[in-house]
Design brief:
218 residues, 5 helices, Pnp Oxidase, Chain A, alpha+beta, single chain, seven-stranded antiparallel β-sheet
Length: 218
């Protein structure tokens, strides 16, 4: 009995004579992080997070930070911070309603991929007793159930190793996002963001949006 595949997967595997290969790959999956997993995850500056809402609708989010922003806290647990985003809280809302998650880590230089399936909980930043995540709004703790390496041959190599300037610094500070200056959302902002928009020079038309480079237009 497989914990990873059901009959829909088996139908494709049998059509392409890959059932034996699929079974071997499942047998190589594991529920605890090995040394290679730990090194790869804790050196990562990004990953992709898949969540599902209570109606079964999936969404995938990109999560980025300084290398080490994902921390392994036990043999089968990891934590990562949630920084200021677009205010939709799709991932956190989904996790709070249905805890199943998928995580995809990619190294665009090697190239290499690692997948994690498990369950997640949203925690307040007060749980970050060591103060490792300045600027975080929440912390997410994931209990891994299935960890496995994925084929990396179609990963495109990205040579520039440059972190986003929006990653919060040691004091939790980060540049104000240009997208919050767009005139089409100006009337929806909270008081603090409205004040920041005025300080930054007012609203912008969509056609004038410079992207999220803090130095754009200077």
């Amino acid at each position: 009995m497989s914990n990873l595949y059901d009959e829909t997967h088996r139908a494709f595997q049998d059509r392409h004579d890959s059932r034996r290969l699929a079974d071997r790959l499942e047998s190589l999956s594991h529920a605890e992080f090995d040394p290679n997993d730990r090194d790869f995850i804790q050196a990562a500056s990004l990953f992709f997070l898949a969540t599902v809402d209570e109606r079964g609708r999936p969404t995938v989010s990109y999560k980025g930070g300084a290398p080490g922003f994902v921390r392994i806290t036990s043999n089968n647990e990891l934590v990562f911070p949630v920084y200021d985003g677009n205010g939709m809280f799709l991932s956190l809302g989904n996790i709070s309603g249905k805890s199943d998650v998928g995580m995809l880590f990619i190294d665009f230089q090697s190239p290499r991929r690692l997948r994690i399936q498990g369950t997640a909980r949203v925690l307040p930043t007060s749980d970050d007793a060591a103060g490792r995540y300045p600027g975080a709004q929440y912390i997410v703790r994931v209990v891994a159930e299935c960890i496995f390496v994925n084929c990396g041959r179609y990963i495109h190599r990205l040579d520039e190793r440059k972190l986003s300037p929006h990653v919060p610094d040691e004091s939790g500070s980060q540049p104000f996002p240009a997208w919050k200056r767009l005139d089409v959302i100006a009337d929806t902002l909270g008081e603090e963001d409205r004040a920041a928009v005025m300080k930054a020079g007012g609203t912008l038309a969509v056609a004038d949006y410079p992207g999220e480079d803090p130095d754009a237009g200077r």
